[in-house]
Structures are given as C-alpha cells and as structure tokens.
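Intended use. Records like the one below are meant for learning the mapping from a protein sequence to its folded structure. Do not use them to infer anything beyond what is encoded.
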Amino acid sequence: MDNPDKIFLIIKAYSDRYNAYARTQKEFGYNGIDDITDAFRHAYWNAIMTRDVGYDFAKEIADNHELNRDNLTEKSKEMDLWNNHIGREIGRELSKNGITNDDSYAKETLNTMDKLMHKPSN
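Structure written out for the chain above:
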C-alpha cells in the first residue's frame, strides 16, 4: 500500500476511535478508565477498526496508541493490549462472515465481555 493511501485508513481508524467512545456512552452511560467501559471501548474500537482497515493495520495503530502513552501504567497497557486483541479477533470473525453493521459488532463485543480484562491485574 502506498503511503498516500494510508492516510485514508488512518482517518478511518481515528473516526472509529470516536465511534467507540460514542458507543460506550450509549451502552454504559459513561466512558471510564481501567474498568468495564474501558474494556468494552478498546475491544469495540479494535473490532470495527479491523473491519474498516484490516487486522494488521488495526493492530499497528492500536499497539502504537497504547505503547506510546506515558500516562498509563504497565498493567493498564497490558489490559488495553489484551482487550484490543480480543476486539480484533471479533472483527476478523465478523468480517469473515460478511457482517458489517456497527450494532452487530457492539452486540458481539458485549457477548464477549467475559474474555476481556475489566481492570488492570495486580
């Protein structure tokens, strides 16, 4: 992929991030940090980003987002990276089955909450 084409994928991934904030607000009524809403937001963002920009580029964007933030503890980064991974797996599976609507991605993410880290491990 040429670099000029990547800018459109970056813009879409950025848009998906805000979609994830809005969807978290809709599902939970708030957007928290190091809690169940944080887990959902990261997984959902990565699920829809995988749909929109592909698994590998979604991973690259999400990993850079987490690893280049100085304000997170190592445990919070670990939590976010795990939840991002689960989200990308959701996105890969739904995309493979031709499912593209946001509601399906949110529902599957909610159905997978038991696999997500809801707080940083001690």
